[in-house]
């Protein structure tokens, strides 16, 4: 059966959401953002997002807190939604354009996240951290599990 929706939640599970896919069976591709604000916001090297129509996204449990920041170029305000209890970032969207929302793909529930397996685009590529290239490097030690094994 064609996939018609995706669900996700934050780490503490106080907030959950559902995305109704605009085209059933067509899963969104992942878009990486290497901008400096996404690095800080995620505490990582980049953010991983799926972009969906705002109208397809709804919270099914709890409500997030909003944070407005400036885009990398200083102009457009980006509105970010996150869980006030555990800090998980959910979405970011341009203050100018309420049509689409970028949902952090790491917040999708496991069975839905694994289906969004295709990388579509990388933006703010000139801000990419050097270590990111090491992710495909065979010489890097790989462990299935934590650092202690
Ligand atoms: Zn939470
Ligand atoms: Zn970004």
Automatic annotation (TrEMBL):
<dbReference type="GO" id="GO:0016846">
    <property type="term" value="F:carbon-sulfur lyase activity"/>
</dbReference>
<dbReference type="Pfam" id="PF04828">
    <property type="entry name" value="GFA"/>
</dbReference>
<comment type="similarity">
    <text>Belongs to the Gfa family.</text>
</comment>
<protein>
    <recommendedName>
        <fullName>CENP-V/GFA domain-containing protein</fullName>
    </recommendedName>
</protein>
<dbReference type="GO" id="GO:0046872">
    <property type="term" value="F:metal ion binding"/>
</dbReference>
<keyword id="KW-0456">Lyase</keyword>
<keyword id="KW-0479">Metal-binding</keyword>
<keyword id="KW-0862">Zinc</keyword>
<dbReference type="InterPro" id="IPR006913">
    <property type="entry name" value="CENP-V/GFA"/>
</dbReference>
<feature type="domain" description="CENP-V/GFA">
    <location>
        <begin position="6"/>
        <end position="125"/>
    </location>
</feature>
<dbReference type="InterPro" id="IPR011057">
    <property type="entry name" value="Mss4-like_sf"/>
</dbReference>
């Amino acid at each position: 059966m064609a996939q018609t929706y995706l669900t996700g939640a934050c780490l503490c599970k106080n907030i959950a959401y559902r995305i109704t896919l605009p085209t059933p069976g067509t899963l969104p591709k992942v878009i990486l953002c290497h901008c400096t604000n996404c690095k800080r916001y995620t505490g990582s090297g980049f953010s991983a997002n799926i972009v969906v129509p705002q109208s397809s996204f709804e919270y099914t449990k709890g409500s997030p807190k909003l944070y407005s920041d400036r885009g990398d170029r200083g102009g457009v305000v980006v509105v970010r939604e996150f869980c006030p209890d555990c800090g998980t970032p959910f979405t970011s969207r341009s203050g100018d354009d309420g049509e689409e929302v970028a949902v952090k793909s790491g917040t999708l529930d496991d069975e839905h996240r694994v289906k969004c397996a295709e990388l579509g685009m990388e933006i703010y590529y000139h801000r990419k951290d050097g270590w990111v290239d090491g992710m495909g490097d065979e010489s890097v030690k790989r462990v299935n599990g934590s650092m202690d094994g």
